[in-house]
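Example 4.3 (complexes with small molecules)
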Amino acid sequence: MGSIQLSVTGMTCGNCVKHVDHAIRSIAGVEDVQVDLASGKVSIQGAFPEGLEPIITALSEEGYPATVTSGIPTEAAAKAGSCKSGGSCCCN
Ligand SMILES: [Cu+2]
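Answer. The structure with copper (II) ion bound is encoded below.
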C-alpha cells in the first residue's frame, strides 16, 4: 500500500473528473482515488504492483496527460530502492 500524487492536465468539468477517476480505478492495485478538478491534483492509494506507468498510460489514452508529483516515480526506481538486506532495515 502506498499513496501517490499526480498532476493531471486537461480536466475542465465534472465529466472529466469521472473519466480520470474511472481510468485510474481500472488499473490493478488501485484502492482509492481522489480527484481535485480545480487544482488538477489526483491522489491515489493502492499497491501499484506494476509501477505507475499503467496509470500514466491510461490517463494519456483518455486525453489527460499526467505527471507524478510525489510518490513512486517509476517501477525502475521502486526496484532500485528496494532493500536487499531483509525485512528489518532502516531504508524503508
Ligand atoms: Cu470535462
